[in-house]
Write a structure and sequence with these properties.
By secondary structure, the protein is an alpha+beta fold. The chain has one domain. It is about 50% helix and about 15% strand. It is globular. The termini are far apart.
Length: about 190
C-alpha cells in the first residue's frame, strides 16, 4: 500500500462518508471559489477571489470579536483604501474584493500582491484532504441549481445554511466543525 493510499484511508478529517471535520475558513474559500466560477470567472481567478472573501470575512469577524483592531478613522474625513493595489472591486458573497488584472488574468490582491491560485489549491488540499473532490462536486451541484443572477445575492445565505456546525461551548479561532454534505445536497434538491 502506498503512503498516499494509507493517508487517505486514515484521513481523520472524514468522520463518515457524508461528514467532514474542517473549520469554516476553507469551506468559505471553496464555496466562494465555486460561486465565482459559476458567475463566469476562470478557475484560477475564482480560487484567488475565494481566498480573498474568506480573508475579508475573517478580518470582519476578528474586529467584531475584538481580536483585530479596526482601521483608524479621522472624524469627518472619508477613509481611503490605501495599499490594496486594486484596479477593480468584485462583489462576491456580500464582500467587496479588491482585485486587479494581471498577465495571468484577474486576481484578488492583498497589499498590492495578487493571491496566487496555486497557494489556494495547496491550502484547500491540505484542509480537505481526500474529501476535496467530493466537497467540490456537492458545492458545484448546489451552485448550478441556480441561475447565476439568482445565485449571486443568495450565495452567502446558502453558505450560512451548510457551513460547519461548531459544537456548543467550544470557542476559539479556527475551531473545526462538521461539514455535512447531506445538507449541501438537500439544498440543491429544494430548488
Amino acid at each position: 500500500m502506498t503512503d498516499k493510499i494509507a493517508r487517505n484511508i486514515f484521513d481523520l478529517r472524514i468522520m463518515d462518508p457524508e461528514t467532514i471535520l474542517v473549520n469554516r475558513a476553507p469551506v468559505l474559500t471553496l464555496w466562494a471559489s465555486v460561486i465565482a466560477e459559476r458567475l463566469g470567472y476562470d478557475h484560477d481567478a475564482a480560487l484567488s477571489l475565494g481566498k480573498a472573501v474568506a480573508r475579508i470575512n475573517a478580518q470582519a469577524k476578528g474586529r467584531a470579536l475584538g481580536i483585530c483592531k479596526p482601521a483608524e478613522r479621522i472624524e469627518g474625513v472619508p477613509q481611503k483604501k490605501v495599499g490594496l493595489g486594486e484596479e477593480l472591486w468584485i462583489e462576491l458573497l456580500g464582500r467587496s474584493v479588491p482585485a486587479k488584472n494581471t498577465k495571468q488574468g484577474v486576481r484578488a490582491v492583498v497589499e498590492d500582491k495578487p493571491i496566487e491560485p496555486e497557494g489556494v489549491e495547496r491550502y484547500l488540499t491540505d484542509k480537505f484532504g481526500s474529501a476535496l473532490q467530493t466537497v467540490i462536486r456537492a458545492m458545484e451541484a448546489l451552485a448550478t441549481a441556480f441561475d447565476p443572477k439568482e445565485l449571486a445575492p443568495i450565495a452567502f445565505s446558502l453558505y450560512e445554511r451548510f457551513r460547519p456546525e461548531i459544537p456548543a461551548g467550544v470557542s476559539g479561532w479556527g475551531v473545526k466543525g462538521k461539514l455535512d454534505l447531506n445538507i449541501l445536497r438537500s439544498l440543491a434538491k429544494k430548488v
